[in-house]
Design goal:
Protein name: Sigma-70 family RNA polymerase sigma factor
Order of helices and strands: HHHHHHHH
Distance between the termini: 55 Å
InterPro entries: RNA_pol_sigma-70-like, RNA_pol_sigma-70_dom, RNA_pol_sigma70_r2, RNA_pol_sigma70_r4_t2, RNA_pol_sigma_r2, RNA_pol_sigma_r3/r4-like, WH-like_DNA-bd_sf
Radius of gyration: 17 Å
Family: Belongs to the sigma-70 factor family. ECF subfamily.
Organism: Mucilaginibacter dorajii
Largest sheet: none
Keywords: Coiled coil, Sigma factor, Transcription, Transcription regulation
Strand content: under 5%
C-alpha cells in the first residue's frame, strides 16, 4: 500500500498541473476544474492496479480526464454553463493584470471551441508531444497537425473578435 501511495504521489505531482489546465479548458471555471481534477485522480487511484503500461501513464491519465470532463459537460445544462462561463470570465477579467487578462481571454476563446478541439489545443498548450496527443485523441499524427493548424486559425479569429469588443 505504501508503495502504491508513493507511486500515486509521484504520478499526481507529474501530471496534476496539466490535468487542471485540461479541465479548465473544458469548464472555464476554477472550482469546476478543481472538482474534475480531484475526480480524475480519484479514478486514477482506484484503477492504478489495472494500468498495464501499454501506453504512457500520462496518456492514460489524459484519457481518464477527458472522459471525466465529457461526462461532466453532458450532465451540465449546456446553455446555463455557457452563460456562467461568460459571467465568470467577465468577473475574472476585472481581477487580472493585462497579461492574465490575455490568458483569461484565451481560455474564454478555447471554451467556445468544439470538445475535441478543446482537448487538442489544451494538450498543445501544455507542450504534450504530438505522438501522445494523437494517441489521446485517437487520430493520426499527420491528421493531428492539420487539425491543430485549423484550431489555431479558429482561435485567432475568436481572439480577434473579442479584442475588437
Amino acid at each position: 500500500m505504501a508503495n502504491k501511495e508513493a507511486a500515486f504521489k509521484q504520478i499526481y505531482e507529474a501530471n496534476s498541473k496539466k490535468i487542471f489546465h485540461l479541465c479548465y479548458g473544458y469548464t472555464g471555471d476554477d472550482d469546476a476544474a478543481n472538482d474534475l481534477l480531484q475526480e480524475t485522480f480519484l479514478k486514477v487511484w482506484q484503477n492504478l492496479d489495472k494500468f498495464r503500461n501499454q501506453a504512457m501513464i500520462s496518456t492514460w491519465i489524459y484519457r481518464i480526464a477527458v472522459n471525466t470532463c465529457l461526462t461532466y459537460l453532458r450532465s451540465e445544462k449546456r446553455q446555463a454553463k455557457d452563460e456562467l462561463t461568460d459571467q465568470i470570465a467577465e468577473t475574472k477579467r476585472e481581477e487580472f493584470s493585462e497579461k492574465n487578462e490575455q490568458v483569461a481571454l484565451l481560455y474564454k476563446c478555447i471554451s467556445k471551441l468544439e470538445e475535441s478541439e478543446r482537448i487538442i489545443i489544451t494538450l498543445v498548450l501544455d507542450e504534450v508531444p504530438y505522438p501522445e496527443i494523437a494517441d489521446v485523441s485517437g487520430i493520426s499524427e499527420g491528421n493531428l497537425r492539420v487539425k491543430i493548424y485549423r484550431i489555431k486559425q479558429k482561435l485567432t479569429e475568436l481572439y480577434n473578435q473579442y479584442e475588437r469588443l
